[in-house]
Recover the amino acids of this structure.
DNA sequence: CCACTAGGTTCCATTTTAGAACTAACTTGA
DNA sequence: TCAAGTTAGTTCTAAAATGGAACCTAGTGG
């Protein structure tokens, strides 16, 4: 299976990863959430080659995860901003960061700590049920075939 | 910057991605959560080359995200099981899946739907504050320098 | 005029990957 | 007993992706 075919699988994880399942894209998005907007800033912050960076930014714009907006004319310059679709990736980044904080801190504690403006406490993120609000235990979540998988099956072997 | 150096950055997202920020590893872990345990099942389910699969499984075992356990002797065969560290990746997979369900369903609806055994409702996952339990809005989370970043800075330029 | 900034693009050597074929150590059925 | 099947890999090679340096374009500041 080639990477380019992965987005056709009837799996939301595979489809999401077809866009940012590579070395650098999620680091670019992490930077977006901490306020980085310009080409050179991304490059210095992340340390990837300009070549790759240009490529990834273009891809993110194509997928409408970032939007290019001019911030000056003469010479015309753009900055990259998260769209709604991009902001929606916040839970992915935060759960990744929490896992890294827990398992990869090298004994030094988390690189960043977070405060919740609403309740003013130092916080971490938790995964909760949209219906009862309780914290999720993986064993208590039962996956069932949904409409997307049914539609796919009927197309593949009708 | 080479990929091999990424895990040394003082960033939990980068460190986490140094293990599974590639094309296939998160798909292997997704399969683990739906009960896949054996080499051939992974290969058929995901469609990556046997070569890559062997490589990724070895890496996941080295990082103690999976554990190899014999399920028969003569010939000796192992299966791969999630460790505690691996199970802790559940929120990452579920938030990825939710994003894919929302933005990449191709109009067919989600491939899988989930029921919460505890409350018996069809559910999605939400990101909540560990302290006040309210749903997280990215704008209300304030990151501050933590001990991990301080320790790193004092090592790099003391 | 010269250096500098910002945002790329081009080129090429090195790395990584995909896919097919091969191996090893058994088990099963005819 | 012997061929075929199962499971879990490993080896090989061509093709694709990557990293890094140099170059380009369109300005600004001195």
């Amino acid at each position: 299976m080639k990477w380019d075919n992965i987005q056709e699988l009837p799996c939301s994880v595979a489809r999401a990863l077809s866009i940012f399942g590579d070395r650098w894209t999620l680091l670019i998005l992490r930077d977006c959430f901490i306020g980085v907007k310009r080409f050179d800033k991304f490059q210095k912050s992340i340390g990837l080659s300009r070549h790759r960076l240009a490529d990834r930014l273009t891809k993110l714009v194509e997928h409408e995860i970032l939007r290019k907006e001019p911030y000056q004319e003469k010479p015309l310059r753009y900055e990259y901003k998260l769209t709604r679709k991009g902001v929606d990736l916040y839970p992915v980044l935060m759960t990744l960061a929490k896992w890294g904080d827990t398992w990869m801190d090298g004994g030094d504690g988390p690189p960043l700590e977070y405060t919740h403006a609403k309740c003013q406490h130092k916080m971490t993120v938790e995964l909760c049920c949209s219906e009862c609000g309780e914290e999720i235990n993986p064993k208590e979540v039962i996956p069932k075939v949904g409409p997307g998988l049914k539609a796919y099956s009927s197309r593949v072997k009708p």
